[in-house]
Design brief:
Strand content: 15-25%
Oligomer: single chain
Helix content: 25-40%
Mean pLDDT: 94
Distance between the termini: 35 Å
Number of strands: 20
Structural class: alpha+beta
Radius of gyration: 23 Å
Shape: globular
Amino acid sequence: MSLRLSRRSLFASGGAAALAVQPALSQTAWAQASANDDVSLAAAVDAYVKKAMAAWPEQPALGIAVVKDGATVLARGYGVKKQGAAARADEHTLFAIASNSKNVTAAGLAILVDEGKVKWDAPIRTYLPDFRLSDPYISDHITVRDALSHRAGFGLGAGDLLFWPNSDRTRAEVIAQAAFVPIEDGFRAAYHYCNLMFVVAGAVIEAVSGLSWEDFVQTRILDRVGMTETVPLARLADPARSALPHGRVGPPLRYQGAMTQIADSIAEVWNWDSAAAAGGICTTPTDWAKWIAVRLNDGLLPDGTRLFSEAAAREMWKPNIIVGSSAGPTAELPNRSIASTYAMGFQVQDYRGERIVSHGGGSPGGISATVLIPGRKTGFCIFSNAEESFLLRALRSGISDLCMGKVDVDWIADSKRMETEGNAKSIAAAAEIDAKQAAGAAPAMPLDTYAGTWRDPWYGDITIVPKTHGRGRSRKPGLWLSFTHTPALQGWLEPYDGETFRTRFPDKREEDAFVTFAIQTARPATATMKGVSPDIDFSYDYQDLKLTRVD
């Protein structure tokens, strides 16, 4: 379980629960920024964002937009696109928005539903006859709606190593390998966040329209909405126009240490061509404000035509699976939801007695959020080029409260408190991990007996080869592990404790893994993996790998 607020908590828990909060500072002034006064609302949000940036001084850039009644009342950038550089972020700066792309994929399918070419409750095989999963029943019965609702039965993040970190897999290969990804829960039984099925949803768009997902999104959505600054694929994002990715890469763990730039372009760490339908879009505050207006207007475009019908708009916000639930708000927890649900490409929940439609996004070096308050015809977005998840929490909740005129919590102070507590737990966990390795037993077999090709049914091959550490008298034998489809996941494999080893990837942007071998007939024959860090991103789904030696 993650000890920190992360993509795992943002997508897995659904935000139905909340921790005890502190009274807001200067709440009277901000509460007076009525949601009926666009100028005051814009000024209040702007002041709040600046205060949050001051509380997280290492945050490089933010992009913020607020929309009300179809008009953009605020769109601007804050900070710098690149740490240590002079170029400022503005309302036209590109940010990776990752899983906020999912509701665009859902909208693409809504367009095809309106045209009579797709049905929400038709089986995927209606459009992709060769599609299959490891469970024959689910293969036959899983629908378009299921694919967009995280209820297929996969575990959290299952199959993500097919495309995260950057992989050499094509879309067709990803979908073919889905047949071997393990299913751990009942069909439609529970919510488990799943990027893989959004890749499948994108393939339905391609099969029905005859266009690639990116060409469909460009011509049938972006061009019609007038989103001229947006690109459907991260590799199309001009680095000069982009807020470049930043993060903390240790020591002692990922998400600890000093803030640093981790790539010279978004695509360097987020080239999701093979999974674009799940998270490929890069956009600007100016452009995403246009998209928010379309969603709040149920598909109505400024020229009076429709991108999708009102019926399709309602369907996309209809809850399909419960994400989480609680006893509801209290005096100490005024924002706690009674129920959080997932619809199609959006999460839907109650917040302070009103309906919130929202989604988050997380990529290496960037996190983001889209929040719609339909009853107020108000929405906003938050884009970041760093991974400061507690800052995102403070902004998401604080701006929501400003838009509702219900400012009674100091989300900045509360999020800083949570961050401090989480960091302390993470550092203690890192020390414990290192102590266990120092005290660990030696492997039962000579190192070279662990070398070989190890195959997982859905990922493919991982190789382990003998390799020498050091130079001269300090030279010693070692092992080098490589994920054959993932260039960044290559590095030393060290003894940890008995038959458990751990990786030391030189690329510190990536997460290390434990590898535990099972000995059969005097040699290692099978192996399992799991992440080293308690804060590991769920898309490093090492735990789903079941390795068998094949040489």
